[in-house]
Structures are given as C-alpha cells and as structure tokens.
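Progress note, project year one: complex with zinc ion.
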Amino acid sequence: MFTKGSKVYSVLKGACPKCHAESMYVNKNPYALSETLKMHERCSHCNTKYKIEPSFFYGSMYVSYGVGIAFAVAAFVISYMFIGLDKFTSFLSIVGTLVVFLPIILRLSRNIWINLFMHYDKTLVKK
Ligand SMILES: [Zn+2]
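Model obtained:
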C-alpha cells in the first residue's frame, strides 16, 4: 500500500505524481524554511510539469484546511485524553502542533492536491 505506484507513496514522499522516481521539491527537508515550497518546474525523469496551470497550488489551501484539522484533532486527543491535560493546555498544544508541523502540513497538502489531478503511469517509469 505504501510502495511505489500508490498515491500514498507519492503523498508521503513528495514524489513526482506520475513516475514516483524523484522528489518534486528542491530540498527534501521541509524544515529548510526558505525552501519549504520551492519545487522543481518539471520532473527530470518523466518531464511532467508540476504546476499545470498558473497558481495551481493555491488550490492546496483547501486541502491544508483538512490536513490542519486532522493534526489539530490528533493533538487534542493525545494531550486531553491520553496525557490528561486540562482544556486550556490542550488548546495550547493544538496551537503549538500546528505551528511546529506547518511545513509538513503545507507539503502534504500540495502532494495531496497534485495527486488529485495526476495519476501514476507505469509506462513512464521504464523510460
Ligand atoms: Zn516524474
């Protein structure tokens, strides 16, 4: 399920959505903050253009809302139910989680967004 060829692989790894052969991002580390959203223009392996239309990745804002909620819920469940903190401290842990994981949330959103429009293509891998 998490191997090359599945969407999950491309989403988690930030790999090219069509060939899964290389990362879409210039710097693989999302915490290099000046390069968090810096992407290659095309895949050097299969020549797929990532930004298929101008401002294409603005759409990933919709996705990042959902991804952010998922992180917030996870932070709340862990801090309130498992650790047993009070509500205010749990709220602070949600804020902290969203700030700390922002680069990851941004990239996950972009990866999910581009994978809604592009699909894995086996024939591209062999080239
Ligand atoms: Zn590619």
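Residues 16, 18-19, 21, 43, 45-46, 48 surround zinc ion (CB under 6 Å).
The two ends are 24 Å apart (CA to CA).
No further modelling is planned for this target in the current period.
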